[in-house]
Amino acid sequence: MSANASRRTEISCQAEAPCRVDLAGGTLDIWPLYLFHPGAVTVNFAINVLTRCRITPLAGKRIRLVSIDTRREEEFASLDELCSARKYKHGLAVQLLRFFVPEGGLELETNSESPAGAGISGSSALMIATTAALAEFTGQKLAHEQIRVIAQNVEAQVIRVPTGCQDYYPALYGGVNAIHLDPDGIHREAIGIAAEEIDHRFVLAYTGAPRQSGINNWEVFKAHISGDRRIFRNFERISQIAQSMHRAVAQADWQNVARLMREEWKLRKTNAPGITTPLIEKVVSAAVQSGALSAKVCGAGGGGCVVFLTEPESREKVAEAIRKTGCHVLPAKVATEGLRISSFGSRIDKLRANSTDGQKGTVKLV
Taking the model in full, what pTM does it have? Predict the structure, then answer.
């Protein structure tokens, strides 16, 4: 695939996509696990923790890659040199550039507001933003589902283990979602509940300890495919919980949501060693003692973020108890919008003036 050369030299673009919090049904979204659990669904909501990709044309063939949040930069003399490289610092960007094969030189800059290894799908959201930006830059009109397929498949190439699909839908659409995992395909359903209903009840905490979701998910995946009956039974029950969670969130039945979160987290902890940690248990205990109704780790566990459900009047007390454990409370709210793409004129200084700088592009931990 290639861009229209005259268009490419005149247009810079930026795409941004939000991260997510998952409530139930995670790991089941990895193909083909959900095929063994009819009715499988995952429930999640997008949050205003954003990822961004900006692409600016450069004269000649030079390819410059910049990651603001990780403070990494590297440069290649041409796309051919990038494609033949065996070592690089920006695996996500390199793999996507190999796929889209843009003409001429460019600077590709990425930034994620998500803390490292937070479990709120920062890498998947950034995959969506970067895929969409490259499609725009190369003049390709891709439907949301095409963007999702490319992002998911290329991310699997980067992390070298199977990836689930649920993380890409909040990044694409925003809002509160039920991702139905059916034999005829994946279907996203928007859950019609006001964002404020969730904002007033949930607290998102970052433990400060990154985790590697691919490792935990891969161990569970292998056990499931290998016929581990305990794992199969766990996921059969997790699937049932997720279906009930879908109904409970749609009906704003928060007591039932709390019960289901507790039950899912209890089951998930038995899937593999390392899904919970002493620090996670400490912060959950402190929050519950201060009034939290339930808690669960975001993503595959082992560190990262923990989400808590509270009554609105207890929310600040729970947040303060979390801070006292040394963990950080993220000022996250539901992101009602998903992927956004903007195009700019050719002047690089104008593009930089209209974009978020490295300091402002990081979530403040409070």
Answer: 0.89
